[in-house]
User: Which sequence fits this backbone?
């Protein structure tokens, strides 16, 4: 079985963000990029499925990024993925989430797959729409927000988180599953894994390789447009008091809430 | 655009507050654009839900009682929405930023080649077109976004962003038929309700969160009691979730939910950046922590240095007295 995990490089949450006033895009060159924390759950789930299913099960990592994406992919390989593919092309710069999903779907047609695993969202854009859009482009069952994944005999079953509990959903493979944080605890790359990752192949993919229509990508292919972006200033520091006892502390809070008219 | 369509989630006739919020905002935007607003409810209970939507200012309520969304995961809803939107022609479409709403928005948008704006916290009309505001990078920046080259335009709306108005509109009822001649393979085998009726942490107007300072799962009862007294939801920091004290659905922060309630009370939470990005947009932030150096005191509106085990129950009592429920 071929499992493909889509991953994204994201700016470190702690990094100071600046934006290019010419196109309202993030200045990605000045900040450290990391593997999207949500994607680690998908990688871990893929590795666990591989360990469980054995045989000819392989785990491939796919990302769309500039050349710097190699570092992020390398971490996935160090965790234990077998191979990687890096879709890199100047024409994809400025793609919004929907255009990104189109490009990834085209790349997945090229790599082939039985099961696509993704994170549920990225920490930078927080859109959560790329997984479902990929599934729709590929016409495969879309099983998102899974906290438990079971594969057997060409079929898949997941527990899908809802706002009030979960749904147990089954579907035939091939399928796409996005994996939530509740599914597992991602492993740390071992020293052996880190060394081994250096020898693993990261296959370059271009838009020509995957037969993508450039009119549907990058800025021209994006149907949304960021017309302005403004950093949010720090919240002004409020009042901090030290409570002598419980009554005083509780009274200070209730007086504040009443004054603020929140209760 | 010919119409503004609002997808409202319902379960056995019950609506979440976000449905009323979106119906109110959607109708307001549609009125400015001089196009009809259409609320859509699907699945068993849709007719009951439709009756409730009559209290909102929408023009048309489309109910698809027979669309089998309880049996198959979202596929019938995608088909029903696609059919309705093709019939209406160029439209704005609003979805709630819930798990199902996000999937539906993405899939309908692929079918109709629509743009998607996610996590909208404000909608307005500028020069005859819809413009949204959306927080990005963990709320550290606010983007202003509009559509280009879009016949259809999809917006995901964040809970707690718009006021729900009780102001009946035309409320004309129409029936949506189940998609004909379709087979679906993603089968819902079982529906497990774990916290039936509980308001989710991302749509509550008050969130009371507990963190590492609680010391163990057995102490979450003081958080639950304060949340209940305030009519709010229980949140948690990553530390509390990772320790297994409470389920992930309560987690606020980078790898949990982003919330923006009117009031956020952090109890025994240090306030690491990963927590901050999930709650910094809250209206009022109150922090109670015994550590005077906790980072949370740098960005709360009121900080109380003290013992949560003493202060939180005392506060619960004062809230009850104030509300006349003590």
Assistant:
């Amino acid at each position: 079985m071929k499992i493909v995990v889509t991953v994204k490089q994201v700016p470190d949450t702690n990094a100071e963000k600046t934006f290019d006033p010419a196109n309202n895009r993030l200045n990605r060159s000045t900040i450290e990029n990391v593997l999207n924390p949500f994607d680690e759950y998908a990688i871990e789930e893929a590795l666990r499925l591989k360990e469980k299913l054995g045989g000819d099960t392989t785990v491939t990592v796919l990302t769309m990024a500039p050349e710097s994406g190699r570092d992020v992919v390398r971490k996935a390989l160090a965790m234990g993925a077998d191979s990687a593919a890096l879709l890199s092309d100047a024409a994809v710069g400025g793609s919004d989430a929907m255009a990104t999903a189109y490009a990834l779907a085209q790349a997945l047609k090229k790599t082939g797959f039985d099961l696509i695993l993704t994170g549920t969202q990225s920490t930078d854009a927080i859109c959560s729409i790329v997984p479902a859009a990929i599934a729709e482009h590929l016409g495969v069952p879309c099983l998102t927000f899974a906290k438990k994944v079971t594969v057997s005999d060409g079929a898949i079953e997941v527990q899908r988180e809802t706002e009030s509990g979960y749904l147990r959903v089954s579907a035939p493979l091939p399928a796409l599953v996005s994996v939530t944080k509740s599914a597992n605890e991602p492993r740390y790359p071992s020293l052996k894994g880190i060394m081994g990752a250096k020898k693993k192949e990261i296959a370059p993919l271009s838009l020509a390789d995957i037969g993508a229509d450039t009119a549907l990508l990058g800025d021209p292919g994006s149907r949304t447009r960021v017309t302005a972006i403004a950093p949010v200033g720090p919240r002004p520091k409020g009042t901090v008091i030290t409570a002598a006892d419980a009554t005083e502390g509780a009274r200070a809070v209730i007086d504040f809430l009443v004054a603020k008219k929140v209760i | 655009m010919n119409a503004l369509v609002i997808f409202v989630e319902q379960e056995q006739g019950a609506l979440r507050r976000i449905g009323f919020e979106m119906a109110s905002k959607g109708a307001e935007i549609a009125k400015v654009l001089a196009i009809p607003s259409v609320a859509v409810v699907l699945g068993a209970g849709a007719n009951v839900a439709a009756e409730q939507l009559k209290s909102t200012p929408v023009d048309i309520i489309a109910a698809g009682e027979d669309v089998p969304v309880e049996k198959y995961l979202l596929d019938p809803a995608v088909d029903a929405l696609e059919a309705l939107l093709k019939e209406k022609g160029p439209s704005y479409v609003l979805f709630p930023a819930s798990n199902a709403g996000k999937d539906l928005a993405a899939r309908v948008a692929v079918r109709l080649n629509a743009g998607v704006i996610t996590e909208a916290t404000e909608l307005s009309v500028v020069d005859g077109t819809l413009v949204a505001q959306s927080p990005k990078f963990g709320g550290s920046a606010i983007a202003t976004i509009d559509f280009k080259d879009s016949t259809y335009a999809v917006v995901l709306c964040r809970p707690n962003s718009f006021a729900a108005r009780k102001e009946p509109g035309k409320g004309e009822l129409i029936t949506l038929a189940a998609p004909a001649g379709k087979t679906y393979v993603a089968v819902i085998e079982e529906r497990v309700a774990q916290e039936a009726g509980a308001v989710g942490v991302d749509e509550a107007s008050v969130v009371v969160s507990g963190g590492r300072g609680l010391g163990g799962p057995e102490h979450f009862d003081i958080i639950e009691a304060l949340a209940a007294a305030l009519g709010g939801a229980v949140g948690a920091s990553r530390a509390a979730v990772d320790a297994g004290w409470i389920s992930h659905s309560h987690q606020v922060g980078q790898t949990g939910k982003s919330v923006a309630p009117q009031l956020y009370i952090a109890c025994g939470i240090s306030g690491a950046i990963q927590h901050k990005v999930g709650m910094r947009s809250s209206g009022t932030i109150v922090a109670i922590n015994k550590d005077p150096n906790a980072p949370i005191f740098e960005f709360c509106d009121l900080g109380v240095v003290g013992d949560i085990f003493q202060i939180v129950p005392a506060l619960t009592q004062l809230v009850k007295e104030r509300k006349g429920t003590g």
About this structure: Chain B has a mean pLDDT of 94. The radius of gyration of chain B is 21 Å. The longest helix of chain B spans residues 17-33. DSSP finds eight helices and 18 strands in chain B.
